[in-house]
Amino acid sequence: MFRGLLIDKQDGRQTAEVRMLDEASLPEGEVTVRVAWSTLNYKDALAITGRSPVVRKFPMVPGIDFAGAVESSTDPAYRPGDAVVLNGWGVGEGHWGGLAELARVPARFLIPLQAPFTPRQAMGIGTAGYTAALCVLALERHGITPDKGPVVVTGAAGGVGSVAVALLAKAGYEVAAVTGRVQEADFLTGLGARHIIDRAEISQPGRPLEKERWAGAIDVAGGQVLANLCAAMRYRGVVAACGLAAGMGFPATVAPFILRGVTLAGIDSVMAPTPDRLQAWQRLAADLDIAVLEKLMHEISLDDAIAIAPDLLAGQVRGRLVVRVGASQ
Predict the structure, then answer these.
(1) Sheet with 233-241, edge to edge strand ranges
(2) In 3D, which of 263, 198, 259, 253 has the Cα closest to residue 227?
């Protein structure tokens, strides 16, 4: 038996509770992991509260990522005791996830924990930070270097945004941080942001083409915010889009793309191939300052997750929520 957060649905009513679970109920997979740390992400909060149909089958253990040690494996790539990390692959949606003391997954879902990170620090980064690294790599792959001009990051006080700001600043970019919480200005400048922009400035409908401002952008919002970013990109600017916090719509025109050669690069962290995952984690290991990472992390217990989920959806959480699931590591 092991403890886990279980979401269930009976007669149209969803419940979420921390309870004892039977190991026999774990889904199929080659590797069983003793989970030490997980996180509470936006998608997890949607699943726990039932505000969006994230969960595809019930009952379900949420948690889109985790870090821990292999307990048993039938795949030769992993041996008992190996430190591993999982991000995405639909866990917490269609396959039991990380908010439980045990997880069983296909071996291909895992990658080795990258030095120098501990499991706790890896979850301080989590899927949000790993997605931020994928975004930074996408900007660089499309030729956006610090000399090309400023890079803007939306949702900068959140999980993806805060890590993106830190990585970009470390690489020498002039970073503008967009947030709906201007009281977080000191936090964001501490991460390396040079400019703080109130989200309200870029949330309203604008013109098809605005004044050229940004060489690059990392956007977690979507919707009107993404449209406005595209309209304000410099010639051959690049936008890495990875979220939809402001909506799934895209009320834009083709003008930025055919008149300024703007590139809109979609970033998918869920099904990204293993080589891309390893590159992102290696970039994090090389460039993310551990001291900065600690500033981003707020530790909670497994029992806290249900109560905090609504706060996360309301945009009242700074940085990364790290969930202590098992023994401290």
Answers:
(1) 195-198, 175-179, 151-153, 214-219, 233-241, 263-266
(2) 253
**Which residues have a Cβ under 8 Å from the Cβ of 38 and sit 6 or more positions away?**
63, 65, 66, 67, 97, 98, 99, 123, 322, 323, 325
Give the global pTM: 0.89
pLDDT tens by residue, 245-272: 888 999 999 999 999 999 999 999 999 9
Q: Could you list the residue range(s) of the whole structural domain that residue 211 is in? A: 127-266
Q: Which residue would you say has higher pLDDT here, 31 or 246?
A: 31
Q: What is the pLDDT of residue 329?
A: 45
Q: What is the CATH number of the domain that holds 225?
A: 3.40.50.720
Question: Has residue 286 been placed in a domain?
Answer: no
Pick left, alpha or beta for residue 124 (phi over 0 → left; psi -120 to 50 → alpha; otherwise beta). alpha
CA distances from 184 to 196, 233, 318, 322 (A): 9, 25, 8, 20
> What is the torsional sign of CA 119, 120, 124, 126?
positive
**Tokens standing for residue 212:** 């050229």
Bond before 59 cis per omega within 30 degrees? yes
Cα 183 versus chain centre, distance:
22
Does 329 map to a domain? no
Residues 285 and 114 sit within 8 Å (Cβ to Cβ): yes
Segment 184-188 mean pLDDT:
92
247 and 213: one domain?
A: yes
Q: Yes or no: say if 99 and 283 are a contact pair by the CB < 8 Å rule.
A: no
Cα angle 85-89-95, degrees, rounded to a multiple of 5: 100
**262 and 134 housed in the same domain:** yes
